[in-house]
Design brief:
Blueprint lengths: L1 H24 L5 E8 L2 E7 L6 E8 L5 E2 L10 E3 L11 E8 L13 E3 L5 H4 L6 E6 L6 E6 L2 E5 L5 E3 H5 L4 E8 L6 E5 L3 E4 L10 E8 L16 E2 L7 H5 L1 H38 L7
């Protein structure tokens, strides 16, 4: 009798374990859980796309109580926008992606499979997008000024207006300018703590066209995250060049030599043709007999 009870218990246990495994198998764990953040627009992303199950995201400051994001409960998406809930930009966050039944579908599981993210600190880890800037050249062509627009971010201030990188990083925000003559491959760099960047005769030659790229620079970050995305290239207008500056002495000398050569060849050909014509005329006259008197 005791052996029969043991066999029954073992069979029941095996059935329960088998059933549990089958249910768990219907909810595969999320893979490749990672953060994607640009200008504090922060998404948690993962794979694969679900078919008969859903995902729920929980997040928290590391070591604190986890919370749900209301937009990412039993979702069929593979990303969750956490921009508005990661309010402490200098805190380190972690998140879990749970694989759960579809909405209004019950399950006997008491704990669902989940995958944890790596830690994420918005202040240190968000990528800084490319800045926009304008170029102004002084009337005397001796100074070029770049007016950089601090990139807007996906956060709002008390007036419900978008904040900028300057609002967040303050004096830590600098700009790295890479520039060179439009007609040269050589490059120079200049760092500026201001969004208004002046280049004078110590940096540029008056009246010459220069091309510029600008990117944000945060020196307090780790080396691989200090620089933001490179801006699009913009070039300043150059001064109106004289004929000799535009084409260069070598090109002009070569052109003059070609013209002189063509003239000399034309003269030689003309002379030769004239001589042949004269000889032909002379030979014709000698072959005609004299008239009798």
């Amino acid at each position: 009798m005791l052996n029969m009870e043991r066999k029954t218990f073992c069979m029941t246990l095996c059935i329960v374990l088998f059933f549990t495994n089958c249910v768990s198998g219907n909810y595969p764990k999320a893979q490749n859980v990672s953060w994607l953040s640009i200008n504090f627009k922060t998404l948690l992303m993962w794979d694969p796309k679900p078919f008969n199950y859903s995902y729920t995201v929980e997040y928290s400051v590391v070591g604190q109580i986890r919370e749900w994001n209301q937009q990412c409960i039993r979702t069929m998406e593979t990303e969750c926008d956490l921009s508005n809930v990661l309010t402490d930009l200098k805190a380190t966050y972690s998140a879990d992606v749970f694989s759960e039944p579809l909405h209004r579908v019950n399950s006997d599981l008491t704990e669902f499979p989940h995958t944890s993210s790596e830690g994420f600190t918005p202040y240190q880890d968000t990528l800084i997008g490319r800045p926009e800037f304008k170029i102004e050249v002084s009337k005397d062509k001796r100074k070029i000024t770049l007016y950089v627009e601090d990139p807007p971010i996906a956060l709002f201030n008390e007036q419900n207006k978008l904040k900028t990188m300057r609002d967040v990083f303050a004096d830590e925000l600098q700009y790295k300018v890479t520039f060179g003559k439009a007609t040269s491959t050589g490059k120079k760099t200049k760092m500026s703590a201001s969004s208004e960047i002046e280049l004078d005769r110590r940096d540029i030659d008056p009246g010459v066209s220069y091309c510029f790229n600008v990117q944000a620079y945060i020196p307090s970050r780790s080396t691989d995250k200090q620089l933001g995305e490179l801006s699009q290239t913009q070039c300043s207008p150059g001064a109106n060049k004289s004929f000799f500056e535009e084409f260069g002495i070598g090109v002009i000398a070569g052109f003059l030599l070609l013209v002189i050569t063509i003239i000399v060849v034309a003269i030689v050909v003309t002379v030769v043709c004239c001589q042949r014509t004269r000889k032909a005329n002379t030979s014709g006259k000698e072959g005609v007999p004299l008239r009798s008197v």
